[in-house]
Amino acid sequence: MNGTVSSANLYDCRDAFAETIEALAANDRRVVAVCNDSVGSSKLGGFKSKFPERLVNVGIAEQNMVGVGAGLANGGQLPFVCGASCFLTGRALEQIKADLAYSNANVKLIGISSGMAYGELGPTHHSIEDFAWTRVLPNLPVVAPCDRIETAAAVKWAADYAGPCFLRLSRVGVPDLLPEGHVFEVGKANLLRDGSDLTLIANGTLTHRMVKAADILAKRGISARVLNMATVRPIDETAIITAARETGAILTAEEHSIYGGLGSAIAEVVVECAPVPMKRLGVPGVFAHTGSAEWLLDEFGMAPNAIADAAQALIERK
Hints:
Helices cover 39% and strands 18% of the residues. The chain is of the alpha/beta class. Helix 1 packs parallel to helix 7 and helix 3 runs parallel beside helix 5.
């Protein structure tokens, strides 16, 4: 395994989102979609064709978009507010805080093309701060599914959840990791592989790279546990504490800054409840370069081989 991840059998999580919201809308007239001139990138073309009266396109006006979503929720509708994650969370953070989280409005935020999925468009379009911005807000679960199966399950969960939530979806293809029929449980990590020497934790586009890294480590005689931590808030403290106590070291990886994201959320639990050596992989507090998402992940030390090397070095600190 080199720095390249195979393109075979990779799926765009946006497709799973689109199929699921269309199925929900067919059975629930309250379901509406609100977007910011992003019908194509949010994969809402099919929704628009089937339910044209239930698609609201506010144009490039993210603050207004969140306000419209809150108004629709207050009127008894079930709005899914969709847009590029960098603009949805960055431009409209005050509205997310006041109109949704503080008001506990029943709005589902869908951050599309998260992380560095817009790689060639550069730092203005990278969304590597959205975990940090959203996970500090009360009443706002933050979720980054690892594959199309978990995406569909998380969208169904969001529709049933009474309150606001933020789902972070990439456009970068990922393989299936979870079984068909998987039921999403907010705040619950998934054990993808058991191990005893250390634990690898990720979500979103990094989860399958962690699985590949665990395969590499196994060939080196190292037993790595792999957890898919889709929910950043509320975090699965029990799974983290158990991993720390049973494996003695934790390595995290994320398509986000190492500051304020998944690794930070896990470190908060570790330092208070079960201190063990930790290493956080991610964007190291810089504006990420321009380049494809896959190249950028490799560049920042998150190719499967590089993850395995970091894990091996971490074990030596135990």
